[in-house]
Amino acid sequence: MAAAAAEHGLAAHAGAADDVGVVGYLLGGGIGWVARRHGLAAEDLLAVELVTADGSLVRVDAENEPDLFWALRGGGGGLGVVTAVELRLHPIVSVHAGALAWPVERTRDVLRAWRDWCETVPDEVTSVGRVVCFPPAAPADGHDPLPARLQGGSFVVVEAACLAPAARSDELLAPLRALAPLLDTFATIAAPALGGLHMDPSDPVGAVSDHVLLDRLPDDAIDALVAATLDAARPPLASVEVRQLGGALAVARDGQGAQGTIDAAFAVLAVALVPDATGAAAAEQRVADVAAAVAPWGHGRRYLNFVDRAEDSALAFHDHSFRRLQAVKAAWDPQDVFLAGRGFAADGSRSSPGGHEPGGAP
């Protein structure tokens, strides 16, 4: 769809990588490279077709079954089998986007500078500050290969997409470029090319993750994050990223879906690779330790698309929204025919089995 839409000067609010599943991404909210300008991707849903628990094929929108339509926009699924979606597209032809990379030893200073920079940029900029351990060779996945300087190394990286002309984007990037990065890939690219910006592997890779939503990112939080991430006594993590939130993601509007907004300034997402089952427990503990290190600056809320294990799905919603979701579930699937989503049972139990929006690894 991205290529077809681009022929008409349009783009969807897609995930941060090409391999993000469309429906799971939309049902869980959706934070992509234009999120600070356009809000959650779920808000671009205009209609959803799904097979419900009684076997009926239903088309829902703002006028037809509005409660179910509300729940599908960010509620996490578990209400039916989605067979089609109708999406609002945005008039985006190109984006000034890319990555800046520095030696991993500069992580603390770069993340502090990036945090300060985030406070100055307009909503047209969505960015990520991350520590990433790149594979020794680029996969043959159809994307441009990793730059040779990144292969097999660990770096602190700032990635960003700017919905502004190149000259204005370059002005905005000047404070980060003043830090003398080893690599600068920023350029004006076609909107569909944003799928390669995060440099995720395209082939399936076993991984586990954990995350924390932060109200703020003071120096102490960065110090704690760096210490937990760059623990020399433990295996390196595939990626630890801090996503810039705010902008349109924080603006409540009439008619929004179950998720609506993300009430946080940043999201920290840690990802560890799991090459085989024997390493799963250690990897889960590794990402949990990173999350615990920054938890004192969080608010306890969760983002469904970053959840990959069973937990209380109520943590992703305000109380009134969660109660409404329970009522919709009870009305449309009282026998719990659908248990695979990240929702909850009709009896009110609140387990969330896992998410659909990869960060550093799929």
Automatic annotation (TrEMBL):
MF terms in GO: FAD binding; oxidoreductase activity
Domain FAD-binding PCMH-type, first and last residues per copy: 1-92
UniProt cross-references to Pfam families, sorted A to Z: BBE, FAD_binding_4
InterPro entries named among the record's database cross-references: BBE, FAD-bd_PCMH, FAD-bd_PCMH-like_sf, FAD-bd_PCMH_sub2, FAD-linked_Oxase-like_C, FAD-linked_Oxidoreductase, Oxid_FAD_bind_N
PROSITE patterns in UniProt: FAD_PCMH (PS51387)
Cofactor needs: FAD
Keywords: FAD, Flavoprotein, Oxidoreductase
Keyword Oxidoreductase recorded: yes
Keyword Phosphoprotein carried by entry: no
Family: Belongs to the oxygen-dependent FAD-linked oxidoreductase family.
Protein's name in the database: FAD-binding PCMH-type domain-containing protein
Organism name: Patulibacter medicamentivorans
